Known about the structure:
- The protein has two domains: 42-198 and 243-427, Alkaline Phosphatase, subunit A (3-Layer(aba) Sandwich), CATH 3.40.720; 437-518, Arylsulfatase, C-terminal domain.
- The chain contains ten helices and 22 strands.
- It has helices at 5-17, 67-75, 89-98, 125-130, 254-268, 300-322, 399-407, 424-427, 467-471, 502-518; strands at 42-48, 77-79, 82-83, 135-141, 168-172, 184-185, 188-189, 199-201, 222-223, 231-232, 235-236, 240-242, 274-279, 329-335, 345-346, 378-381, 389-391, 395-396, 437-442, 446-451, 454-457, 483-486.
- The two termini are 31 Å apart.
- This is Arylsulfatase.
Amino acid sequence: MRLSSALLAVLLxxxxxxxxxxxxxxQSEENQSIPATSxxxxxxxxxxxxxxxGDVGAYGAKGVETPNIDQLAxxxxxxxxxxxxxxxxxxxxxxxxxxxxxxxxxxxxxxxxAPALIRPGKATLPSMLKKAxxxxxxxxKWHLGLGDGNVDWNGDVSPGPLDIGFDYSFLLPATGxxxxxxxxxxxxxxxxxxxxxxxxxxxxxxxxxxxRKERPDxxxxxxxxxxxxxxxxxxxxxxxxxxxxxALWKDEDFPxxxxxxxxxxxxxxxxxxxxxxxxxxxxxxxxxxxxRFQGKSSMGPRGDAIVQxxxxxxxxxxxxxxxxxxxxxxxxxxxxxGPVLTDGYDDMAIEMLGEHKPAGPFRGGKYSAxxxxxxxxxxxxxxxxIAPKESDDLFSQMDIYASMAKLLDIQLEDGEAMDSVENxxxxxGMAPSxxxxxxxxxxxxxxxxxxxxxxxxxxxxxxxxxPFLIRKxxxxxxxxxxxxxDLSKDVGETNxxxxxxxxxVTTMENKLQQIIKEGY
Length: 520
């Protein structure tokens, strides 16, 4: 495979001026800009966990139906080259909320007792929206750390979401596979009996709750070594936990509890502009959907969790419609990273996959440097403002930050959201994307760079630097040799053409270093 000299020239020039974005036929209808408006639309972000590009009907799912999400795609702006900033959850969430790459703060997958990653005083999407008078809330999975590194779960937990721009929060403090297995509302654990205090440790066993190693008969889900500590609700988790019996969650209750909290926030703020960051636990492991969703797909718990997630999305959209505020609400539906099948628990996700392709036509998945690590389903929906259409232009979740600032005529401070590209007209379906380059981060801060359809994956120093990926049979895409792929001809990233185009590899490496240093 050979690049044409013309394409090579364009890509080389892009290291200085960027490359021209693609314009799809559906986008070319109208390229006018809309001015900042006195009308302040609500913003709802559905941030799904571990949902792959091909995991919903509108993107080709098999064996599972997602009618509510498909309706958003069919009546909104469906993006086919939209990305999270990273192939793992913590850096992606950090990037969405701050408009900057997670590697700038050494963001990585956090333990359940990690200190707050986003510190008070850091500019965030919710704090920016509050300047325009928005009420702000986060409901669902957090996994961005809490407190200062020694959290007392029996008192006020801070810093946290309330200290970085959110007015209300109802959280899973970390993830479903980690302790503490309790809800945190604003600064306090929900339902805690102070006579039964919580203690959490990731270094040694605390309390007398059995682990899977001690009582395998009590664990109803098969788990790997990492997920074999405290058994709660029949599931062994990472870390040990004592106390807090009255506050323990039941995994199967997540859809109803989180939906109720999201809907209540919307009802309470229907007469004022609001931002809801609805951060799902689904379809992250352990996958334990409510009984009414079990068996609703042909793919076992993972497929059923997708059905559950679709129902949750539909309930919130229906509430917006019933309150008469849907036409004044921008909805962004997307995922924090690509798909993963067996990730600590064996729930038959591989055996029951059938014809379904979680990553769609792309290679890799969660953790990976390949496209499926960060290319995720993304839909922007604003009834009677955004016309139904589809685009294959490049887009990053980080662009939401600067684009909303543009819409609301808010001037960002120097250094604020330094990796966010103002892309409002594209988000509204009125113009091609302003994003010309995109850095993606795989597990372990391993970076790749997209310029238009060219993809460069930076080499690593040693082969097999991520042994846990090998144990999980996950393609990380890490090599001691540079990798270069032409996605216009090789969407599956199977033909490394770096050796044939060493000059371009050097150019893209230099561009990568420039963005790391200066931002976008």
